[in-house]
Amino acid sequence: MLKGFRDFILKGNVVDLAVAVVIGAAFSAVVTALVENILMPLIAGLVGSPNFDAFLVLTLAGGVQVKFGAFLTVLVNFLLVAAAIYFIVVVPMRKLTEMSKARLGIEEPEESEDPQLALLAEIRDELKSRAS
Asked: Which overall architecture, per CATH, does domain 2-108 show?
């Protein structure tokens, strides 16, 4: 039983997953700091408020408040985080990958047709020719 647990823990994908979670948590802190300390203050300088929480608040009967602005703040934060990840991680990594492939002379393989689809197309064409 302990040997099975040891084998499970030492599997490469479990270790890789653990490393990915730790790196993801650290990277999340970097992106959050970027958004909260750089991007949102820039927006506050342009708009006059660091968030939109007080924007478009409806008060219903009984004092219940519907806060569209709070949702807008979360939506803007999400878009800023997505943009930060795209422009700071995805685009540079794509460029680095392209540059390293070009330097090493690695070409992208041409997409070949799935052999099963080719066979089905042949069968379809044969059936059409027999029907005519």
From this structure: Orthogonal Bundle (1.10)
